[in-house]
TrEMBL record:
Sequence ranges assigned to domain Squalene epoxidase in this UniProt record: 212-486
Catalytic activity: squalene + reduced [NADPH--hemoprotein reductase] + O2 = (S)-2,3-epoxysqualene + oxidized [NADPH--hemoprotein reductase] + H2O + H(+)
Principal subcellular localisation of the protein: membrane
Gene Ontology terms: biological process: response to hormone; sterol biosynthetic process
Protein keywords: FAD, Flavoprotein, Membrane, Oxidoreductase, Transmembrane, Transmembrane helix
Major enzyme class: oxidoreductase
Keyword match Oxidoreductase: yes
Family affiliation: Belongs to the squalene monooxygenase family.
Compartment annotation: Membrane
High-level lineage: Eukaryota, Viridiplantae, Streptophyta, Embryophyta, Tracheophyta
Cofactor(s) listed in the protein's UniProt record: FAD
The protein's name in its UniProt record: Squalene monooxygenase
Positions of transmembrane segments: 6-26, 485-503
Keyword Kinase: no
Amino acid sequence: MNYQYILGGEFLACSFAFVYVLYTLVEKKKPKEIASSSTYLKTNGPKNGICSSLLQEAAGGTDIIIVGAGVAGSALAYTLGKDGRRVHVIERDLSEPDRIVGELLQPGGYLKLLELGLEDCVDGIDAQRVFGYALYKDGKNIKLSYPLENFNVDVSGRSFHNGRFIKKMREKASYLPNVKLEQGTVTSLVEKNGSIVGVNYKNKSGQEFTEKAPLTIVCDGCFSNLRSSLCKPKVEVPSYFVGLVLENCNLPYANHGHVILGDPSPILFYPISSTEIRCFVDVPTGRKLPSIGNGEMTHFLKIVIAPQIPPELYNSFIAAVDKGNIRSMPNRSMPASPYLTPGALMMGDAFNMRHPLTGGGMTVALSDIALLRNLLKPLHNLHDASALCKYLESFYTFRKSTSSTINTLAGLLYTICIASPDPARKEMREACFNYLSLGGVFSDEPIALLAGLNSSSSTLLYHFIAVAAYGVGRLMMPFPSPKRIWIAARLLSVALGIIFPIIKAEGIWQMLFPSTVPALLCTPYARE
């Protein structure tokens, strides 16, 4: 009967989706993501060959300046330094970070660590292996394991203390003689006739300096004060995470993340050491975030959230609340909308963010680093400005194949997982849980997308449509009533209303038809 639900709703769902896509593509203009570098240089950038002379002027003793030494910055410094580039990293605080994000690395991200030679950075920090997720809803639960059968035995997700991981990567980068890590605050980018030729910064002692290089890469995190110069920031805050650490307890499914489809929104558990489990309680932006200081948060966690916690974790959850080490943070989302700026590039959370429910941020950052390294390898002379500009433009196009799928999945899953009084949204949430419960290809392929092992946007769209069709089929069988037909129509409307704004933000043309983008066709890297 479960499979009949899919077949029963497939035709109707696909018909609505097809009509909607046609309408969108015919009635609206193609999204203005990234103009070609030639267009940019004609309208905004240096003219009459000035770009080349400016970047040659920035020669000095540094090839690349990296602003920020978080996950993206430190991994990038090691990767480019290992290729022989002279790298200067400027980080505002080189002490071990104490953050409650960036703690779960998906298997796809671990594969990128292997590719970059950074896999030993998860050794010696009490990192825990993660093999999948357990999903809870209304007293039912399912285990969804990563499809790792075709990979080396060492390949899995990893979870850890973010600060320990970053510390290991910074140490590894600093061992390279051509990589310089310096504590300082970058105050501005140095611009000359439309090109970025370096940065102004203050060192730890407050002295002001100017450092020049042919390429400056900004990856100074979600609080970046430089992003407005290099992209069009559209930062949204869909929710807040309330973070706790549970101690000396065991998860119901060992070495798995646990997601409870709770009310008002998901609750997440995963190990960060052999004795600690991170708990995140999501609070949607539309709901007032309880105050930690006046006791509102404690009351909220004990009265609203605790009854939804699996029994095996309940006592440890209450103990963590009573301990009082409760922290909150905004969950930001920002599509990548770069300005093509000669001599500069953006990476990491400074450039592109998605909801952290799916833990895809580090996978995107490490994938971007591997891509940039491969793009720059043939370019021995970074002072060749025209070639550098083309490769940087190609970077923004090539990265879409991975980043858009991960970003879209994060937005879809979070929106579906939020509790709602709307019957259509309730059905969508129930359809998603039951669809994954079918097992086989119905769970393996979606979990492969979540794990970063499959970056196919067509696979993502197929399964999203299949979930909607499954929901419609549930409503249509055994006999449709007017009320159920209305809810089914609303479900399709909700599904389209969820996915198309996300895809539009990512770039319809670049995400769904990347082979037609001029930047991808003209770069020498694409022809290799």
